[in-house]
Specification:
The complex is a heterodimer. Chain A is an alpha/beta fold. In chain A, about 40% of the residues lie in helices and about 15% in strands. Chain A contains 17 helices and 19 strands. In chain A, helix 15 (about 400-410) links the parallel strand 17 and strand 18. Chain B is α+β, with helices and mostly antiparallel strands. Chain B contains 13 helices and 13 strands. Chain B starts with 9 loop residues before the first helix and ends in a 26-residue tail after the last strand. Chain B folds into 2 domains: about 35-95 and about 195-275, no CATH class; about 105-185 and about 280-385, Alpha-Beta Plaits (2-Layer Sandwich), CATH 3.30.70.3460. Classes of the chains: A alpha/beta, B alpha+beta. The interface of A and B includes residues 29, 61, 88, 91 and 124 of A.
């Protein structure tokens, strides 16, 4: 339901959604194959420290915990009520949640507006608003935070801790992002599925994420915007960069988005372009681009100028990058034009057949020592705004050694607040290097174009709230 | 004159006219079929999820009208009966129109089967989620288990269930008994009863006898259950105002939908089940085999005659099996020698085997084993999507 701006009581209470002291899981089943059982199981498995109250009218214990027949039977205070029961049972549970003064309500249940039960969804939402009980969902997969060891939903794993707040209307894509996080070390501060977002809106999570100390960047997957005014206002107020992917713009996608999360998209795709632009967010077109930009915006400082130096041991990666920079309207400049002194000094780190142009090709024989020196020189040069390093795994390249050297250099130059991105295109050793670099705060990618997209986003993203 | 079956929706009737056989197979694609979570069945689903805490989902006014018991008292009694695991709100689906086959099977262990072997197979039946229901028998009877599955794929029953145990040395035989007519179940007349659809056969006489045993239910308790199970139409089973308050859905619409699904389409029967184990009652089962040269019409005629007898708690009529009927009575409430005599009074009856059961494993998808903390845990295995013959290979 529409709001005109983020509501302070909602934003204030979202801390109970992502760092609750106690959780009641309504629909907690005794059977391990059932989703209601999994919610409790995953909370326990990932080390949630707060109190868990399984609620099931038929059970006395669930996974070794005392079960309660109703929410009203719980003796302690309940911060978060997580609902995993069929839709026709939800309203009664919502009333109980209000009665016990729960702080936040999360409804995972499907079969509301998306199947034609809009009236029921609206009635529940109005009731929650009347009682200032923020409702997240319905029709969502869950939420959590790796910093709090908190995995609440039908979610098999937590992401690795990191800077990206992942706010997604789609559960499947949220799970995909969490899987990517595990595999490719895309670190997250928290994640939440919003589903039908009957009550709590994107704008409120934007405000919450802006206050969250672990979050450096917001990544938002949108199927429909019910409250564009609130969204724009919250994003404009935010001091952290925001990347958005908006889907459901194709002819059949409009219908699919309604069937999925009851999202209505009466406007053209151009309308959303304008909204996102007005909000000061960056719009990604593909899922991969969305994740890539989120990673860079989360890990790296803003790019303050366009003097980017590309240092590589392979000409191919350099050429792919040059072309893509130009395509994106931010062409590379020759090194001598950026810093004549650096163009001279950098020769010390390459053989005589190397090229100090830009890309700086330190050749396929480059050692860890040569990489380290080139990176250091480039980052320390006051005329250079950012460095993009590339590793091609030749027979003599110590890929992980170069990654370690890059991480050391970056750590020692962090106070310069210059972006340092890496391309590692190759096989298993490159994937390992990418994970290592990401773990050490460097946005690293398997292809040149991904890294260039990220670098350009660092230049174009809004950093700091609109004045 | 051939019997005109009127079960199912008008679409199904149309289908029958066109194809001359009842739709079976992939249930949810058949005409007129509704899923168990469909809107049309939402009243039952709300009641099923709330009656443990809010017994007022039942039509307590109807109870008062039929018994004189005030709603407050009826509510208290229903709550206690659930808490003491004596009752459960359940539903029976009409497998014939849902596209399932209903397959019961009788298991006989060898005389020298040890208590450990008996326990092993009992636990297997209790914990196998593909087995929908089952009655373990006390040692010393003519057979040892009577279990049942509603399945859409017979191979899955053979590979996924029967093959897992029937070659064990302590198993003497397994007789598969496909159900031709589901006549009575838990004292309630089912879809294939000739008359009295939904009628509940546990009247004042049975209640008086059962109450005199002092096993936790008195005559008023039994009267409440009878009033609900024998509500004039299924619409009178629930209080739709309460269901609406709990769910936020429209009372009138829920009522109309349920009446259509049950009273009109006869696709499903909601009912209150008496857990005879908690009541300390036993069911005596009679496995009846007719002579092989008995024609089907006669077999069905006998079945219809026997079905008039309200003492039978369960009545299954089989086809293509060694046996023809399985019937049961409450051992403590009837004169069992009279039952046996009645069965043997038919010249067509070749043999009657007997066994005594003190409990049921599951009530279709709902578990009954409160000792494992799983009372009313509902498990549903949708076998149509699976190929059990490819498992464990």
């Amino acid at each position: 339901m529409k709001i005109m701006e983020a509501r302070p009581y909602v934003v204030e209470k979202l801390k109970y959604a992502l760092n609750p002291r106690s959780i009641a899981v309504v629909g907690a089943s005794r059977y391990p194959s059932k989703v209601g059982n999994k919610v409790v199981y995953e909370l326990q498995k990932w080390g949630y420290k707060g109190k868990i109250y399984p609620v099931n009218p038929r059970a006395d214990t669930v996974l070794g915990l005392k079960a309660y027949h109703t929410l009203r039977d719980i003796e302690g205070e309940v911060d978060l009520v997580f609902v995993a029961v069929p839709a026709h049972l939800v309203f009664s549970i919502v009333r109980d949640a209000v009665a016990i003064k729960a702080k936040v309500l999360v409804i995972a249940t499907s079969a509301f507006k998306e199947i034609g039960r809009g009236e029921l969804q609206n009635d529940i939402t109005s009731y929650c608003r009347e009682h200032e009980l923020p409702l997240i969902g319905p029709n969502l997969v869950g939420l959590g935070s790796p910093y709090e060891h908190f995995n609440c939903g039908f979610i098999p794993y937590l992401p690795v801790p990191g800077p990206v707040a992942m706010i997604s209307q789609s559960g499947a894509n949220l799970l995909a992002a969490l899987g990517t996080s595990q595999e490719e070390h895309l670190g997250m501060s928290f994640f939440v599925g919003l589903g039908n977002k009957a009550d709590v809106d994107f704008s409120e999570f934007v405000e919450y994420a802006d206050r969250d100390p672990h979050t450096k960047c917001l990544a938002i997957y949108i199927e429909g915007l019910d409250s564009p005014e609130a969204f724009v206002k919250a994003c404009q107020k935010a001091s952290k960069p925001i990347v958005v992917i908006k889907v459901g713009g194709s002819k059949i996608g409009v219908k699919a988005a309604f069937a999925h999360t009851a999202s209505e998209n009466p406007e053209s795709d151009g309308y959303y372009d304008a909204i996102i632009k007005e909000a000061g967010a960056i719009r990604a077109t593909t899922w991969q681009e969305f994740l890539d930009l989120a990673l860079a915006l989360g890990l790296e400082p803003p790019l303050r100028g366009e003097n980017v130096v590309l240092i590589t041991n392979g000409g191919g990666a350099g050429l792919l990058s040059c072309d893509h920079f130009e395509r994106l309207g931010m062409p590379l400049r020759e090194l001598k034009d950026i810093s004549p002194l650096l163009a001279q000094k950098i020769r010390a780190y390459m053989p005589m057949f190397g090229s100090p142009l830009n890309p700086v090709d330190i050749s396929g024989t480059a050692s860890v020592i040569q990489y380290r020196g080139a990176f250091q020189q480039a980052l320390r040069d006051p005329k250079v705004d950012a460095v993009l390093g590339a590793i091609c795994p030749t027979a003599v390249t110590d890929v992980l050694g170069v990654a370690k050297a890059a991480a050391e250099v970056y750590a020692s130059t962090r106070d310069l607040a210059k972006p340092f991105l890496m391309i590692c295109q190759g096989g298993a050793e490159c994937r390992e290097a990418i994970r290592y670099l990401r773990d050490h705060g460097i946005a690293a990618y398997p292809t040149a174009e991904q890294a260039v997209n990220a670098m350009v986003a660092l230049r174009r993203a809004k950093h700091g709230a609109a004045s | 004159m051939s019997k005109l079956y009127k079960i199912g929706t008008p679409e199904q009737q149309e289908y029958l006219r066109a194809y001359n056989f009842a739709p079976k197979g992939y249930a949810f694609l058949e005409p007129g079929i509704i899923g168990s979570d469909a809107k049309e069945f939402v009243a039952f689903n709300i009641a099923k999820s709330f009656y443990q805490v809010y017994p007022e989902v039942f039509n307590l006014a109807q109870v008062e009208k039929a018994t004189g018991i005030k709603p407050a008292e009826a509510k208290k009694r229903l709550k206690r009966l659930y808490d003491e695991k004596m009752i459960m709100l359940v539903k029976n689906s009409c497998v014939g129109i849902m596209g399932f086959g209903l397959y019961y099977w009788v298991v006989k262990l060898t005389p020298n089967a040890t208590p450990e072997e008996r326990k092993e197979i009992t636990d297997f039946f209790q914990n196998n989620d593909q087995i929908c229901t089952g009655y373990p028998m006390l040692r010393g009877g003519d057979f040892d288990f009577f279990n049942g599955n509603h399945m859409r794929n017979l191979d899955n029953l053979i590979y996924g269930v029967l093959d897992k145990f029937r070659s064990k040395p302590y198993v003497e035989y397994v007789h598969l008994c496909p159900v031709r007519r589901l006549i009575r179940e838990s004292s309630v007349n089912q879809f294939d009863a000739k008359e009295g659809f939904r009628h509940y056969f546990f009247g004042a006489d049975e209640a008086k006898k059962a109450a005199s045993l002092k096993r936790g239910m008195d005559e008023k308790d039994f009267a409440i259950i009878e009033a609900l199970n024998n509500s004039p139409t299924v619409a009178e089973l629930f209080d739709y105002r309460v269901l609406s308050e709990l769910s936020g859905l429209k009372a009138d619409e829920m009522r109309e939908d349920l009446v259509k699904a049950v009273d009109h389409d006869k696709g499903v029967i909601p009912m209150i089940y008496l857990n005879y184990r908690a009541l300390g009652l036993h069911q005596r089962f009679y496995l009846v085999s007719l002579f092989e040269n008995t024609p089907t019409w006669r077999s069905e005629e006998i079945a219809d005659e026997l079905a008039k007898d309200g003492r039978f708690v369960n009545f299954f009529d089989f086809a293509d099996a060694h046996h023809n009927y399985m019937l049961s009575v409450y051992d403590e409430l009837v004169d069992t020698s009279e039952i046996r005599e009645r069965l043997l009074s038919y010249g067509e009856v070749k043999e009657v085997k007997e066994a005594l059961s003190e409990r049921q494993f599951r009530r279709w998808t709902a578990r009954l084993d409160s000792e494992n903390g799983l009372y009313e845990e509902c498990i549903f295995t949708d076998d149509v999507l699976l190929d059990r013959s490819q498992e464990d290979r």
